[in-house]
Amino acid sequence: MAIDFTFPPEVEATRLRFREFFQGTVKPREDGLDPDRGDPDARAKLVQAVLELRGDAKREGLWNPHMPPAWGGLGLGPTAQAAVSSEAAKTMLGSYVINCQAPDEGNMHTLLHFATAEQKEMYLRPLCEGSTRSCFAMTEPEVAGSDPTLLRTRAVEEGDEWVINGHKWFISGARGASFAIVIAKTDPDAEPPQARNSAFIVETSNPGWHVVRDIESMAGSHNHCEIRLEDVRVPAEAMLGGRGEGHKLGQVRLGPARLAHCMRWIGQTETALDMLVDRAQERFSHGSVLADKQGIQWMMADSALELYAAKLMVLHAAYKVEHGLDFRQEVSMAKHHVANTLWRVIDRAIQVHGALGYSRDTPLAGMLLQARWSRFADGADEVHQMRIAKNVIKAYEAAGTTSAATGGLPI
Ligand SMILES: Cc1cc2nc3c(=O)[nH]c(=O)nc-3n(C[C@H](O)[C@H](O)[C@H](O)COP(=O)(O)OP(=O)(O)OC[C@H]3O[C@@H](n4cnc5c(N)ncnc54)[C@H](O)[C@@H]3O)c2cc1C
């Protein structure tokens, strides 16, 4: 029987090592550090805690798990990384402490894949060491982010330089980043439209790079910035990947990055379900604890069913990435399912906590507000559904069965 749902011993050992570090070292340091809870010094304390904990992670050999050893990492494959990221997400700071935070994690993979040797030394090396941060600038307020062929940011060739002008927003981590990977239109008439954009590395010290504001979202201000690029001049060597490869780069980046999000969301979902059950077991109403009520048990059962399916989907998608198989359909399905599961399970946990769940006395309110963006960022629900449906039709037309589009599993 070839199907084995246990991790190989070395992956399980890695997962447990990270788990112990997150629960034993990181979590106790997080107490009272939530910047949304009113302490004006909370952010400074948070940064200090991350710096100290990063030292611990490096000393314990838990740094950069997603990067190859040549880049100071542990060289974990996607499945092992799934296990680590989901453990990290059960704490507030876990991803930052091991240098796996978005968008740097995705940018590291992108640079590893597309950068020249010189670009890697200049930008990837310090990112891997944790001495710099970065951002990824694609989305624009004026056009639908769901369709990057519509981007208006223009890069025009002048001699051996490129001059970039444009307007971006929701650029995560922009404040404090030392460089950005910017997607801009270089060839407006190229066919297909996917060949019109290119990627550039832009240093944020460039005089044309302006952070307009840290956008206040429904969850507060979390360094998702509006940016103006005004006559940003960069040398020809600043292009990342080939001319016209901006769309391809975005796709290569987004596949594993979506999966990384899914892994973190699974950790969050499990935390919410744990809290739901914990509260239901001790809250007493109408003659028994909530856990004895069928209406509450249905919430537990639905959440468990959805979370179980989420874990299987993510592990299967990670397996396909790891084995070099076409993973696009599985990653789309996993991203859609996990994002919606996250939202529903946190909402149920809030329901069971009543007023306490609505308050800021538990992390649930903040988790719900954060969860909302998961259903439209990195591919909106409807766009994933559109792609999933196209693949279902394609599979049916090719083989007279939709089987290949539902995981291609042998059942
Ligand atoms: C917290 C957060 C962090 C982010 N970080 C970054 C970042 O670091 N860098 C970056 O470049 N961007 C970032 N984004 C932007 C994000 O990638 C975009 O929000 C996303 O791509 C959607 O684009 P949009 O907001 O322009 O929505 P639109 O494209 O305008 O879509 C709005 C809605 O229209 C519907 N829709 C769109 N297309 C279709 C379709 N074909 N069929 C059916 N319905 C459709 C969907 O319901 C969708 O939710 C971030 C966003 C958030 C909220």
Overview of the structural elements:
Helix 1 (9-30) packs parallel to helix 3, helix 7 (246-282) runs antiparallel to helix 8 (294-322) and helix 8 (294-322) runs antiparallel to helix 9. The chain has 12 helices and 10 strands. The longest helix is centred in the middle third of the chain and has 37 residues, at 246-282. The chain has 411 residues and is an alpha+beta fold. It has helices at residues 9-30, 42-59, 78-88, 94-97, 104-114, 117-129, 246-282, 294-322, 328-353, 355-358, 364-371, 381-399; strands spanning 134-137, 154-158, 161-172, 179-185, 197-203, 209-217, 220-235, 239-240, 284-285, 288-289. It folds into 3 domains: 9-101, Butyryl-Coa Dehydrogenase, subunit A, domain 1; 134-244, Butyryl-CoA Dehydrogenase, subunit A, domain 2 (Beta Barrel); 248-405, Butyryl-CoA Dehydrogenase, subunit A, domain 3 (Up-down Bundle), CATH 1.20.140. Residues 103, 135-139, 144-146, 170-172, 224, 373, 376-377, 380, 382-383, 386 line the site of flavin-adenine dinucleotide (FAD).
Features:
411 residues, alpha+beta, Butyryl-Coa Dehydrogenase, subunit A, domain 1, Butyryl-CoA Dehydrogenase, subunit A, domain 2, Butyryl-CoA Dehydrogenase, subunit A, domain 3, four-stranded antiparallel sheet, 12 helices, 49% helix, globular, binds flavin-adenine dinucleotide
